[in-house]
Amino acid sequence: MQYALLDESGRPADRGDRIITLVAIVAKTLVGLDKIIPKVKKKIPSKRTKLAEIKFSTTGEKTRIRVLKEIADRDLPIYTLVIDKEGRKIFDTPENYSLLVAEVLRAAFRDFPEIRHIIIDRHFTWVRQREKFNELLQRKIGKEVFIEHLDSQQNTVVSLPDFVAGAVRTDARGQPEYKEIISKKVRKELVKTWREIKKVKA
Q: CATH no. for residue 57?
């Protein structure tokens, strides 16, 4: 079984956040991936380890580099999607989020059609929203997969795409140093506007 781990960076509904990013990391196994964040966290000064979770947006340069290097040292192909919102809002609905996730997953499926388990950092609070998202995503990608919504505070595996998404977003905003660390793992880079993505029919 192949896995795809997904997360985004940026605030879709904030007009001031022009660029948002979404990434999918493909993994043959999850064994050992849950050890990366705890390993890096041990190196953070004690006054900072009180954070419930470590994310790209809440950590400093050294921690970001350590996590990204751990990812780069493993067999983890990466697929990225950079979305230019063009000053628009992307309302946080199952429909809109499924459009974004399907866009990056299609690229991953072309290389890894055997992906059967999708793991997403828990995006929606309500169960009915997650169920609706799952239904829409299955329809858009045209295949049955197991979709799991995990809390990054409980399972650090889903923190990995967060760091990659943060690196891709800072690169899109003119700071390439973080993305350069994982650049050799990137299989496909998509750059689209929100208008282009909305035109894609399931």
A: 3.30.420.10
Q: Which pairing describes strands 19-27 and 2-9: parallel, antiparallel, or unpaired?
A: antiparallel
Packed helices 61-72 and 159-172: angle between N→C axes, nearest 10 degrees: 110
Sign of CA dihedral 164, 157, 24, 119: negative
pTM (2 decimals)? 0.93
Could you tell me if 24 and 108 are in contact, meaning their C-beta atoms sit under 8 angstroms apart? yes
**What's the token pair of residue 37?**
């964040």
Amino acid at 197: I
Residue owning tokens 């989020």? 97
pLDDT in tens, 98-111: 999 999 999 999 99
- The total number of structural domains in the chain stands at 1
